[in-house]
């Protein structure tokens, strides 16, 4: 089994806030001491941190659930509960994080040490010391801690490389990588020898350096899942320059120019924006007998079928086996990299807006539906959060929640929908009778 993993689906749960406390000051020489219950502590966030020492998402293959600690409960003497520490989850450079439900990109983590909070912990509930008023100097009210955010995430690793090698299987991509870098990719005389991306660093004679990724071979129909399909095409999205390696000897009976068109078609089908990246055509295996003639024909076909106003891509004849032409190719690649800007992977429509963890003023405070058993069902983020933070063990807290529902217009809305005295109303698993 390959130890390279570039996609994962995980679940994260931030810590709940600690519950507030109901307590009263009872000291011998302090009459009418009043409330003394402290607030609960904040729940821990789940934080992704980029670790340059990681290369794959293998750590997420078997560990798919990440839960931060909850905050401590409030204590007597007005003492706050301790806030929980954040849960740090380390991810490799180049990890894209998406919300599994909406498909929106939350963040793109590319810098070593970069941090992003993927789930925020709930705030601590207030103790009864917070609810004291002149009218009610000794309240028996406290709040439960706010629930921590919970979400399912899709992680996608796109390797960080300046240059990507693409081409049909067995055109010599792995051999080329092995001679221009210190990488040791598997090399064999059969298709799909490379089944995972390989990375290597190149240093030219002039001192320039850049990262090169050798991607598993594409074949016609890859964008529809043929061969290895688009499984590894995502890794070319971060590259700024594409080296299109072509077997100019036509050793497998294919026309080099048709190979060139077929691979470009697959790149375009996968992501049209890949065609924005400048390409250098690498005419490999020039040490073979028919290569020179095939290269001449290739250039004629390329010129004849190219837009007269477009700039023809550079073509560099090389032989990975004899190391012919490599220095010139690498210098030209470094020069092209210098004048090629970074390509944005995601536009604003694909990115989720900065998360807001309070109440959305424009969102409806609650929704009413009816279950099959004729029970009225109340739902909605604001209402459910108030419900979860209510301590139903205290009568005063229950009455406060009832007043909050009335203030939100729940009673009037139920009446308008036809609710009658004695009808059952459900919030989550909690049921109560509607009183008209």
UniProtKB/TrEMBL annotation:
One of its GO terms (biological process) is ribosome biogenesis. Mg(2+) binds at residues 174, 194. GTP binds at residues 167-174, 192-196, 214-217, 284-287, 319-321. Residues 2-160 form the Obg domain. Residues 358-436 form the OCT domain. Residues 161-338 form the OBG-type G domain. Signal peptide: none annotated. Keywords: Cytoplasm, GTP-binding, Hydrolase, Magnesium, Metal-binding, Nucleotide-binding. It is an enzyme of class 3 (hydrolase). PROSITE patterns: G_OBG, GTP1_OBG, OBG, OCT. Monomer. This is GTPase Obg. It comes from Streptococcus sanguinis. The lineage of its organism: Bacteria, Bacillati, Bacillota, Bacilli, Lactobacillales.
């Amino acid at each position: 089994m390959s130890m390279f993993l570039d996609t994962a689906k995980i679940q994260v749960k931030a810590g709940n806030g600690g519950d507030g406390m109901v307590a009263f000051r009872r000291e011998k020489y302090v009459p009418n001491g009043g409330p003394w219950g402290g607030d609960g502590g904040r729940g821990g966030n789940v934080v992704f941190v980029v670790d340059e020492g990681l290369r794959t998402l293998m750590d997420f293959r078997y560990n798919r659930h990440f839960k931060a600690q909850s905050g401590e409960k409030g204590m007597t003497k007005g003492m706050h509960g301790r806030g929980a520490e954040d849960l740090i989850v380390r991810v490799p450079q180049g990890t894209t994080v998406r919300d599994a439900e909406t498909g929106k990109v939350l963040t793109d983590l590319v810098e070593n040490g970069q941090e992003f909070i993927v789930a925020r912990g709930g705030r601590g509930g207030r103790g009864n010391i917070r609810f004291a008023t002149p009218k009610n100097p000794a309240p028996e009210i406290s709040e439960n801690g706010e629930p921590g955010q919970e979400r399912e995430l899709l992680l996608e690793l796109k390797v960080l490389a300046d240059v990507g090698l693409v081409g049909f299987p067995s055109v010599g991509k792995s051999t080329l990588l092995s001679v221009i870098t210190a990488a040791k990719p598997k090399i064999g005389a059969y298709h799909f020898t490379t089944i995972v991306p390989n990375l290597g660093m190149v240093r030219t004679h002039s001192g320039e350096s850049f990262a090169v990724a050798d991607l598993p071979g594409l074949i016609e129909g890859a964008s529809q899942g043929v061969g290895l399909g688009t499984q590894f095409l995502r890794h070319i999205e971060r590259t700024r320059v594409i080296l299109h390696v072509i077997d100019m000897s036509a050793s497998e009976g294919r026309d080099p120019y048709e190979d060139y068109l077929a691979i470009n078609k697959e790149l375009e089908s996968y992501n049209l924006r890949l065609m924005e990246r400048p390409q250098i055509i690498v005419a490999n295996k020039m040490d073979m007998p028919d290569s020179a003639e095939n290269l001449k024909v290739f250039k004629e076909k390329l010129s004849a079928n190219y837009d007269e106003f477009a700039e023809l891509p550079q073509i560099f004849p090389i032989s990975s086996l004899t190391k012919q032409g490599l220095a010139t190719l690498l210098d030209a690649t470094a020069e092209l990299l210098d004048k090629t800007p970074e390509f944005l992977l995601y536009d604003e429509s694909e990115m989720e807006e900065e998360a807001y963890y309070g109440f959305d003023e424009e969102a409806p405070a609650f929704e009413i539906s009816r279950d099959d058993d004729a029970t009225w069902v109340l739902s909605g983020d604001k209402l459910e959060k108030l419900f979860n933070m209510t301590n139903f063990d205290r009568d005063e807290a229950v009455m406060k929640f009832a007043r909050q529902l009335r203030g939100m217009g729940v009673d009037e809305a139920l009446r308008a929908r036809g609710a009658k005295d004695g009808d059952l109303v459900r919030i989550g698993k909690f049921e109560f009778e509607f009183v008209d």
